[in-house]
Amino acid sequence: xxxxxxxxxxxxxxxxxxxxxxxTRPLRSVGGxxxxxxxxxxxxxxAGHTHRAGDSALRLGRSPDNDxxxxxxxxxxxxxxxxxxxxxxxIVDLGSTNGTLVNGEPIQEKELNHGDRITLGQNAVHFSVLxx
Length: 132
What we know:
- The protein is mainly beta.
- The protein is 0% helix and 38% strand.
- It contains no helices and 11 strands.
- The chain has strands at residues 37-43, 50-53, 58-61, 68-69, 80-85, 88-93, 100-102, 105-107, 109-112, 117-120, 123-129.
- β5 and β6 form a beta hairpin.
């Protein structure tokens, strides 16, 4: 029986790496495509979970095909979406039954700012822009 040999090395082009942002420089996604944000669930059935938002939209709701799954009967299956438009982040309500609130006010679509509080069903969510 022949001795084991490691598989041949991949021939793909090298991947460019970038240093992570520090306190004086915003954290950027690979390639410097734009800002990153963090969504922290502060209270409700999913308290303590944190998720990143960046280049691709982040869909929130009860259904298992969401990016952020909320185990809360007051949250719709596909409740809301957080998306980046240029350098800004927006939240869009996806026709939820109980609505989406930003800083206590019902919204259909709203630009998010660092420190905003989002309410989805029984979940209180804190929105932060990273490195800003």
